[in-house]
Amino acid sequence: MPGLMRAIELLATPGALPALLRWKKFSLASYCIVQRLKEAGVAPASIVDVGANVGQFAVAATNLMPHATLHAIEPDPATASTLRANLPPEVAARVIVSAIGEREGSVEFQVNRDSQVSSVLPLGEDRKASFPGSTVQRTMKVPMATLDGLFAAAGLASPILLKIDVQGYEDRVVAGAVGFLQQVKWVVIETAFARLYEGERDFASMLDLMREHGFRFVKPLNFHTSDVTGAIIEMDALFERV
After folding, report:
1. What pLDDT, on the 0 to 100 scale, is given for residue 72?
2. Peptide bond connecting 159 to the previous residue in cis, omega within 30 degrees of 0
3. What's residue 1's pLDDT?
4. Which of 112, 187, 197, 234 lies most in the core, judged by the most C-beta atoms within 10 Å?
């Protein structure tokens, strides 16, 4: 049934089927997120994709926002290799292999069987219950940088869209981007309504944090549901600088 529903949604989404056939990596969720960003008037000159995985959002943004310069960041070297292969050469050349957080140095990174679930943080009880197939296979040490260290003085073209999807570590990314966020107009951030990772802030807490940094919540862009219960457990949220 989920596969049938996805096929129906794909066919009902204008432009999605041609994108599926043309793009090296296609994610219906990311396709819809970027289309909804465009409908909301988001037109960035620069995009920073933190937690790019294999390029679900990066590929959609590159194709649907072709005038924006995209910088993609992924901590797992093997996943980053696939990410590069899914992007045009000029975009692949800007891929940064690093975790992003509140400090510079290194950090233990938990590699999950599902690479989209890999995280610095341990899995929470709700993540384990909702996605029993998501299990940690190994841990490895990866470099960690801050967005302030990478981009605060980089002179990225404005306006800037920042996308953060780092499996519970979003608040630490924000903590390391106090200067850079002053340059950012829009933020797309994954927020949780369940205990998905140990130490993760929930949506209400992230809402307060983004307000502290001068951003207002605009609208949901996408929801993630539990494979077991069907309950909404995560949301991709759009914030805009006030």
Report:
1. 98
2. yes
3. 52
4. 187
Residue with tokens 């073209």: 157
Q: Which domains does the chain have, with CATH numbers?
A: 2-241 (3.40.50.150)
> In terms of C-beta distances under 8 Å and separation of at least 24 residues, what long-range contacts does 131-136 make, across chains too?
131/226, 131/227, 131/228, 132/228, 136/110, 136/111, 136/112
Which of 122, 124, 119 is CA-nearest to residue 109? 119
- Predicted TM-score of the model (pTM): 0.96
Tokens of 196: 């998905």
Complete edge-to-edge strand list for the sheet that includes strand 69-73: 69-73, 46-50, 160-164, 184-192, 232-241, 215-225
Q: What pLDDT shows up at residue 2?
A: 63
Q: In terms of C-beta density within 10 A (0-12 exposed, 13-18 middle, 19 or more buried), how is residue 13 classed?
A: middle
- Does the CA dihedral 182-161-74-156 come out positive or negative? negative
